[in-house]
Amino acid sequence: MVHRSILDEKGIETEEAPFYDNNYKLYPPSQIGVYFMSPINPSITQVFYRSTSILKPGHTNTLNDLYFGHRFVDFKLCLDMPVIYLREALIAHRIHGVSQSQEATENLIQIIGQYLLNFQLKEMSKSFEFDIVDEKFEKSIKKIAATSLKYSVIALANGHQSLATRYWHLALAIEPKIESSELAHKLSQAIKIGERELIKSLETNDGIDLRITSYKPDPPFEYI
Question: Is residue 143 part of a domain?
Fold first, then answer.
């Protein structure tokens, strides 16, 4: 697995901090918890596979395969064998308005899919009895709800009130306690009254959060 740089629609390249702070060989269950909490490789081209380690499944053209199929493969590999991570940006990931990730955002799959995926990942890891799984799973559900609120803000800032409303309700369905948060309260008001100044106060940076800090992985690992 390698780091990426980001290209926008105009071909302008943006650098972000690598996910990990060094080059590592990560042994199970080092990488397991990450897949519950963060899309460490947003682009599938960041991963290079040893062909003898994976079986090629039949292509079924389902939404699940389209958006999350590679995540199942990656997670299964992390359960069984080590993963090498290189912090150099060896690929460029282009983000544009007609990308699959943009389409997934518009139809709620970015949240609904991740929510269901984490339940499936937890089920896949049961037989391995890694202690880290339950802790990361509980944290991930709260994070998914918070991310749904973030998408609601972005949708509202871009003038999509209906989509914003759907993401707001989805966040509460996933984690009801989030309704008491300041962001959820302000967002609810902004959706109802549509006041531009209130909406502007909630806006984020165009929906792309650039990582500014690199992390040390969970053990066991070794430097390479």
Answer: no
Residue 99's pLDDT is 54
Measured CA to CA, the distance from residue 97 to residue 89 in angstroms comes to: 23
211-215-221-222 Cα dihedral, nearest 10 degrees: 90
Q: What is the pLDDT of residues 98-118, one digit of tens each?
A: 555 666 678 898 899 899 999
- DSSP code at position 81: S
Tens-digit pLDDT profile for residues 170-188 = 999 999 999 999 999 989 9
In a domain, 13, yes or no: yes
Total number of domains constituting the chain: 1
Domain enclosing residue 31, as ranges: 1-95+214-224
Cα 206 from Cα 113, distance rounded (Å)? 22
